[in-house]
């Protein structure tokens, strides 16, 4: 008898425990943030994680009555890992939103999981144009390579650059950068002497740069992902290519603010086009940079950090708009058409494409107070992704 009572009590407690737990679960809003925290793209992970944590420290972890929980997972930029982690986060952790995606292959690997489970996927880094077309649940807070590359193809021919060799990492964003730079540059009357592609992983730039030296174009246009630019810049300098009169141009990934001060003076004067510079002179950006540096031992936020920070804002605002009651499709619906002032300037989540419309700036590397900065000198306002066909 005594035994039975105990057993009954235990069962009742278990039930209570379970319902208590599910009640707690109902009040939790989980964000599964998958990033490369190790490997070649680790700087991207470090920047985005720091930015997401800063957003939460500044805006609290209670939104529309829900406790926001951030679950960070390291995929080391291996798409098979990203896919497995996304599956576990959706099935086991029952996350409400997936986010992160350091490189394009990771975002594309997770797109079918987002679609099948109707989980919003906020892409904070990856920047191949077609990513947002891979799932109706994808919303992007970073940028696209066509957005950045077209601005450079308009600037270069007006500034004495008539023939160019392109050099890009051989995958989605590199191919986008090459195509959109080339088409626009040809349209503007320029000449492309050669188009070179280097492997994404562990690239050896030396033989490619030797080839460029021999071809002696007015400029070399480069795209490599965030974190890879310093190695290329160093070799460009070591081979004396700048002294041989070959200018280096590219999208701002090459003069990544995270690494700019390690590149040395070879970076001085390099002109790039991009959506964000740490040096962007707005009050909102100054506030962001100060807070980020304070929270991260002086680390400079780069364009990845801004993608992570704005991605968190988009998730928080969608949660607020849906009163904490919406599922994945309602959350994506609430993200469409969102407009706000980012540290990069004004942005809009295009309601049709779920991609980001934003200013693209032309910037030149300059030394100020002993440090290197991407100093903006021109702006093309409200640029929609030129890669979208519809
Ligand atoms: C991608 C990655 C980067 O680090 C970057 O700067 C641009 C694009 C990508 O894989 O999509």
Automatic annotation (TrEMBL):
Signal sequence range: 1-24
Keyword Signal: yes
Source organism (scientific name): Ramlibacter cellulosilyticus
Residue ranges of every copy of the Leucine-binding protein domain listed in the record: 30-368
Family, per entry: Belongs to the leucine-binding protein family.
Keywords assigned by UniProt, alphabetized: Signal
Lineage: Bacteria, Pseudomonadati, Pseudomonadota, Betaproteobacteria, Burkholderiales
Entry-linked CDD domains: PBP1_RPA0985_benzoate-like
InterPro entries given in the database record: BCAA_transport, Leu-bd, Peripla_BP_I
Origin superkingdom: Bacteria
Protein name: ABC transporter substrate-binding protein
